User: What shape does this take?
Amino acid sequence: MIDDANVDVPGARDVEEVLRTDPIAWVLGTRLTSPWVLGVVLAAIVIAMVVLGPSTDSRFIYTDF
Amino acid sequence: MRFVALLAKVLLSMALTLAFVDVAVRLALPREPRLEDNFSAAYLQRAICGDGLWRKTVFVGDSALWGYRVAAGDAALTRLNHDGVPVENLSFEGGSVVNSYALLRVMDMYGVRPNALVFNVNLKEFNRADNQYRTLYPALEQLVWSDLSPAQRALLQQTQKPTLDARIDHAVSGGWALYGMRADIREMLFGSADAASAVAEVTHRLSGESARSAASHVPTPARFLGTYDLTALNDANVEVQFLRALAARLRREHIPAYAVLTPTNHGLLHDYIDVPAYAAQLSYVTRILHANGISVLNYDRTFAPDEFLDNDHLTVAGNVHLATLLRRDLPL
Assistant: This one.
């Protein structure tokens, strides 16, 4: 019986190597799964919602002539 | 258990980021030369408490002093500031005597005493049909409402009802600067009430709608029919009552005060206001002011018609003239 885990597939790259050489994979694979980074991302979403949200303020509308 | 620890870390990280941004907003949000046309209660509070008003001459009033339809840098009070004169422009679109009184109360609430106070008196706002009559600007109302006496509150038209979401909104605004000053941040970022309005403005400009609207925006005497109510003033008028209260408070607190009778375009409004009833109204408010030791700067007829954009708003040249007069007439 062949142990799959020990089979070297020709052309396949080591996961650690991928994370080291491909920045997008590095971010998606490690940083976004960090709870600390996830918290920052969620805070950024909240800030964007506050800043970009519609104005609901009951501002005084100057009635021009 | 592992999930709870993960969630705790996420929430902690989020809270720390929001707190960091909050501190940054409090420290770094620029101070504008005048209030934006959609300023928040939090911004007003910051301007009152943080701008060293004790050493400044503070101007409170309406759009005529604020500099309606001229760039902030062209407004008379900004010009004075640029010349090194210590003035603070707390006027705004929608100001009135009622609002000037309320601003003085807010300064009192925060223990701020200006070096001197200048306010304008605009007779059109004594007209019951005027939309500024007995109405506080929403941000100002939010700050001062609970501090007014029940009798004063009864005279005013409340714009923000004390609903549950209004209370939550005020509570969150009080503790979270980014949220509290979101209207000001949007104005600074987009030059408009919000991002959607900014996009709409660009669309209107590109489609030519803005140009068509500006072309139709020509002040003619007919457009001002009914702007001034020349019925004799008396204490039944809410603005008169608050003018008395403002003047009496300034006298009681020994704050040097000056009242500007708003420059008015008599060329445009000749048919309506060049009559004895208008002069009688001016005399009436002047008597109230003098009785309380307030100096009156009567600019009602001081400006030429070509210095106005409409009935009482000054052009850039008009603002230069106003700055010159204020420098001449006030101990700045």
About this structure: Chain A has a mean pLDDT of 70. The interface with chain B takes residues 35-40, 42-44, 46-47, 50-55, 57-60, 62-65 of chain A (CB under 8 Å). Residues 3 and 9 of chain A are 13 Å apart (CA to CA).
